[in-house]
Amino acid sequence: MDVHTGDGTIAIPAGRVTLSDRRTRQSWPVDLAPYRMAAFPVTQAQFAEVTGERPSSARGDQLPVEGVSWWDAVRFCNALSRRAGLTPAYRRRDDTGDAEWDPSADGYRLPTEAEWEHACRAGTAEARYGRLDEIAWYRDNSRERIHDVGGKQPNAWGLYDMLGNVWEWSWDVYDAEVYGAYRVLRGGGWFDEHWSCRASVRRRGHPDFRIDDVGFRIARSVPR
User: Within a 10 A sphere around the Cβ of 223, how many other Cβ atoms?
Assistant: First the structure.
């Protein structure tokens, strides 16, 4: 399956994924409707075109944008939606300072962590969708630097860099009772050991957190 559209997203089929957390030793199933996911992480060129900003420490148009917070990703999604004439998915709630997602909006958004893992696995049940050196930039092969998107093999659904290169922000709160507003990061990055580059690995970050191995990719809901 590799159904692209003009916006660079790919159709992801409905399915079920079981999420797990090593810290709490809990797992939970999530049923997913069809949605769309970008084939690549957002690049520096894309981010600059939409926002006029180049926040990354490394420089290169086809490098994944990094040094972006969860809030930066949310603002990008809304700005891209407006440029495309779509309804923005997010609005900031003045009473809590948090973001609210309108599931009925047709605009761009961050994937949920369940959507991210389902898309990453692409129908496989293993920790990775291929041999790690063939699909991901990580500590053993990255020469400790970020790389252009699309330099490794995609998964069966045509998604590149789902593991390695940069961690990716998702919509979800990690654990509100313990970590408050911290959001889930997925995928592993260019400086990570092999065990962090697995479909099930969860990391957390404050929504204002920025670092040179964290970026994001966009998704869209499919109208029902």
Answer: 7
pTM recorded for the entire structure: 0.95
Where would I find the beta strands (DSSP E) of the chain?
Answer: 9-12, 15-21, 26-32, 35-38, 90-92, 99-101, 108-109, 167-173, 183-186, 202-205, 214-215, 219-221
Q: pLDDT grade, residue 164 (50/70/90)?
A: very high
Count of H-run helices and E-run strands, the chain? 5, 12
User: Counting beta carbons within 10 angstroms of the beta carbon of residue 15, is it exposed (0 to 12), middle (13 to 18) or buried (19 or more)?
Assistant: middle
Which pLDDT tens digit goes with each residue over 93-111?
A: 766 668 999 999 999 999 9
Q: Where are the alpha helices (DSSP H) in 105-180?
A: 113-121, 132-135, 176-179
In the numeric block, which tokens belong to residue 71? 């809030």
pLDDT above 70 (res 25): yes
Angle between helices 44-51 and 70-83 (to 10 degrees): 70
d(CA 202, CA 111): 14
Which pLDDT belongs to residue 96? Answer: 65
Residue 2 clears pLDDT 60, i.e. is over it: no
Three-state DSSP class for residue 84: coil
Q: Are 18 and 199 in contact (CB under 8 A)?
A: no
